[in-house]
Design brief:
Blueprint: H1 3-12, H2 21-30, H3 38-53, H4 62-76, E1 80-81, H5 94-100, E2 102-103, H6 105-118, E3 123-126, E4 133-136, E5 143-146, E6 152-153, H7 156-167, H8 186-204, H9 207-220, H10 225-237, H11 241-254, H12 258-270
Helix pairs in contact: 1-2, 2-8, 3-6, 8-9, 9-10, 10-11, 11-12
Length: 279
């Protein structure tokens, strides 16, 4: 096990409230980048927050503080969504986002959350369908921000339209499903980052990095059905039958998708495992 893998395993054993999100995001980056300077990156993040504190005045109201932070990060420093090469893996690494000032919704949101937290602003990540968001504040006065779009605040009507674009008009709404805006746990944020990387490496045909991303996700959350199935099938393709059987059998135990269970059970039989009965 590499030092990066050991650091990640240690991270996964921590309770959610004991996880430092910025350090954890860098631990993810370290799985795919050798000799990552974690301390230097954390120091740069601290310096960034210190510079922001000169412009984000605590005595002003929440709207003014958000406006000032947006101006500092997105206008003055030029942080932005990488629209030209969205699926570049570097967009998923917090250290690269800091140095290149380019990212995707979730990494720009993590950056925003970490800067805001150091300024005393109540900031949380929200695993909104299709597009990670930032929630600033609590209760009815909370703002939903899109860090990928420069920190723009999204009204409920815009959020509903995004749901309609994904699922069809009238299928979901914020009023009917307010849990869509609940703060994500740090573990959920890390898993979502890793899922992005899994998809990127799958599309790029990079099986070693894809396996690393899947294994990291399952280290954080061992019973994720999709990851168990995908890693099991990847192990099969790599001719590692014992590991494939372990993942696929576990998938059958935790999944509620009858069609996929039936297909995976046939693969288990083909791999030489004991026949499994479907109930």
């Amino acid at each position: 096990m590499t030092n990066a893998q050991q650091a990640f395993a240690q991270l996964a054993r921590q309770p959610d409230d004991g996880i430092d999100l910025a350090a954890a995001a860098l631990t993810v980056s370290g799985l795919f980048q050798q000799d990552l300077a974690v301390d230097e990156t954390l120091s740069a993040l601290k310096q960034l927050a210190s510079a922001a504190s000169a412009q984000v005045l605590p005595q002003t109201d929440l709207f003014d503080q958000v406006r000032a932070l947006n101006q500092f990060l997105f206008e003055e420093l030029g942080f932005a969504g990488n629209q030209e090469d969205f699926y570049d893996p570097r967009n998923s690494f917090l250290d690269q986002v800091l140095s290149r000032r380019l990212g995707i919704p979730i990494t720009l949101s993590v950056l925003y959350i970490e800067i805001a937290a150091r300024l005393g602003l109540p900031a949380y990540g929200v695993g909104f369908p299709g597009h990670f968001l930032v929630r600033i504040g609590r209760g009815d006065t909370a703002l939903m921000l899109d860090a990928y779009a420069g920190g723009v605040a999204l009204p409920e009507s815009e959020l509903d339209q995004r749901l309609a674009d994904l699922y069809g008009q009238g299928t979901l709404s914020i009023r009917s499903h307010p849990a869509l805006l609940r703060p994500a746990t740090k573990r959920e944020i890390l898993v979502r980052m890793l899922r992005n990387l899994t998809g990127i490496y799958r599309d790029r045909g990079e099986r070693v990095n894809r396996l690393a991303a899947l294994t990291a996700s399952l280290t954080l959350a061992p019973n994720l059905p999709d990851e168990l199935r995908e890693r099991g099938l990847l192990y099969r393709d790599l001719d590692y039958a014992p590991a494939a059987l372990g993942d696929l059998r576990r998938f059958v135990e935790v999944s509620d998708d009858a069609e996929q269970i039936a297909a995976v059970t046939r693969i288990i039989d083909e791999l030489g495992g004991e026949p499994m009965r479907l109930h």
